[in-house]
Request: fold
Amino acid sequence: MKNILTPVNRCLFTFFLFVSFLLLLPLSVQAHPPGTVTLQYDPDAKVLTVTITHSVADGTKHYIESVTIARNGELVKTFEYKSQPDKKTFTYEYLIETQKGDELKVRAGCNYFGSKTNTLIVGESK
Reply:
């Protein structure tokens, strides 16, 4: 069987792979999950405060696209977004009915890549 990869073809193939790698590298560097998801719950106001750290250059192109809230393992609601209000850290507030001892699990998802989840037990201090 004859080898079809001549030295010129090998060189072109290697060059193509290298250029492809360089073109895709910026996308992988920019894509990252949220850094932190901090939760606080005010039982009197019934308000869950979710503070998210997700550093981006442009909050309209790379942003937290969803915040999903579950109570005791049951989905409460998923909130969808098309941008994030700040390039680094921002806070959302949600009206959530709970009882002492309820587990609130919040997942913040990036529109490019990854997510971060945090859990809070109502009435317990960390």
In short: The mean pLDDT is 86. The two ends are 69 Å apart (CA to CA). Residues 1 and 36 are 57 Å apart (CA to CA).
